[in-house]
Design brief:
about 20% helix, globular, five-stranded antiparallel β-sheet, alpha/beta, Rossmann fold, Jelly Rolls, single chain, 2 domains
């Protein structure tokens, strides 16, 4: 009996492996001419059984090449809005001001995926909103939907085919695609170094996938280290409702968030948005690497007061964590060193008042070599300040209430020993 079970398991495993290997997207005649000197490839592909689709389907995705093809290039992944399909999304990049977040740097590959073709059963990341109870019920919970598995599967196929730098893969999106950027991206810090969402159409998707309150992360679920997250939304945009809960959850979980807002509506033209809040492109998110540690700033002084949920008619623009910066200096088994600072007013040209000093709790994430188990003790110094700390139950290293200034100061942490 045991032998028969083992044989059956082997046959099932072999079949699934064969199906996995059989997922080979087919290159088709491109419907898109070269844009800004960058060539395009269009692919069609079915779905893998393990993605969980109820019926077979064919989907289209587009790969835009960098101006000069080269190995180990970064990858810029784009999730389109509800008003687009993959082809119209790519064509937006012909014109500056037309959904600017769709446009990737010239030295990146770019991947554009589609959800419109099968929207009746595959209308993905935009649905989780208070105005659509049907989709909230359908897509609630922490389990990934088939379309999310398709996105990650397609990203990994492109990474392999084009020899993408695995540490420089980025996710972006507008509106519905912004909701997907948060919902898919935050759950896949093992794939994406950083994510950026332009006026995301709701925070319910990410709240469900990340088990934000009133939920809690099940004991059997292990969430990968999250990516650095950039979000810009408008208080006069109905889709932005709930951002107070999102910001609080990100802060309490000690997830990295750079958040900008203002009364610019459900906009996609960066130049027009910057007339209201000129910080939206101030942080170099495409310099983040998945194989480098980063600093998370929480409970910071100097953040603007959120307009959600009660001040939605305010004309004020604001920010959370906009001025903090870090630089990796050392990440060894015995010591981690990182320079922390505020960006200076002379470096950042903005209409905002840039502080010369701010306080924040600082958590170090994605540490590559400096590892301590929960309960492990460490010594730390930061300028003239020093102390001892203990790794918490989540394995996180946090320094409370550091005073950070525009003068870069080295944070140094060494192990004291493990219990």
């Amino acid at each position: 009996m045991k032998t028969a079970v083992l044989v059956l398991l082997f046959l099932v495993s072999s079949t699934l492996h064969a199906q996995d290997k059989a997922w080979v997207p087919t290159k088709v005649a491109s419907k898109i001419a070269a844009i800004n000197g960058r060539s395009m490839e269009t692919f069609e592909a079915g779905v893998k059984p393990e993605w969980g689709y109820a019926a077979p389907q064919q989907d289209t995705f587009v790969v835009m090449h960098p101006k000069e093809d080269h190995g180990n290039a970064p990858l810029y992944v784009v999730l389109h809005s509800a008003g687009h399909d993959v082809i119209s999304c790519v064509n937006c990049t012909r014109t500056i001001g037309n959904h600017d977040i769709y446009r990737s740097p010239d030295d990146h590959y770019a991947l554009y995926v589609d959800c419109r073709k099968h929207q009746a059963q595959d209308w993905w990341w935009g649905g989780m909103h208070g105005r659509d109870q049907r989709l909230i019920k359908k897509n609630s919970g922490g389990d990934m939907m088939p379309v999310e598995k398709r996105v990650i599967g397609t990203v990994k196929w492109v990474m392999q085919k084009y020899e993408i730098d695995p540490n420089r893969v980025y996710l972006s999106g507008n509106s519905m695609g912004g909701s997907g950027t948060l919902g898919i991206g935050m759950r896949h810090g093992d794939v994406f170094a950083a994510i950026k969402a332009n006026v995301p159409a709701g925070i319910e998707h990410v709240s469900q996938r990340m088990y934000f309150p009133p939920q809690s992360v099940p004991e059997i679920v292990v969430l990968p280290e999250p990516p650095v997250c950039i979000d810009y939304s408008a208080q006069n945009d109905g889709w932005s409702a709930g951002h107070d809960r999102f910001v609080t959850a990100m802060n309490d979980r000690r997830y990295s968030l750079f958040f900008y807002w203002g009364p610019f509506g459900h906009a996609n033209n960066s130049a027009q948005i910057m007339k209201v809040n000129d910080l939206i492109d101030s942080f170099d998110w495409l310099s983040i690497r998945k194989n480098k540690a980063y600093a998370v700033f929480t409970n910071a002084t100097g953040n603007s007061e959120l307009p959600w949920p009660n001040e939605l008619k305010t004309s004020a623009a604001g920010q959370v964590n906009a001025f903090f910066r870090w630089k990796n200096l050392n990440d060894s088994t015995e010591k981690v060193e990182m320079s922390l600072s505020l960006v200076s007013a002379s470096e950042l040209k903005t209409r905002f008042d840039v502080p010369k000093a701010a306080g924040a709790d600082v958590t170090l994430r994605r540490l590559q070599n400096f590892k301590l188990r929960p309960g492990g003790m460490f010594h730390w110094t930061f300028g003239t300040a020093k102390g001892e700390g203990k790794i918490d139950d989540q394995g996180l290293l946090t320094l409370p209430a550091l005073r950070i200034t525009s003068v870069p100061t080295v944070l140094s942490v060494i192990r004291k020993g493990e219990r």
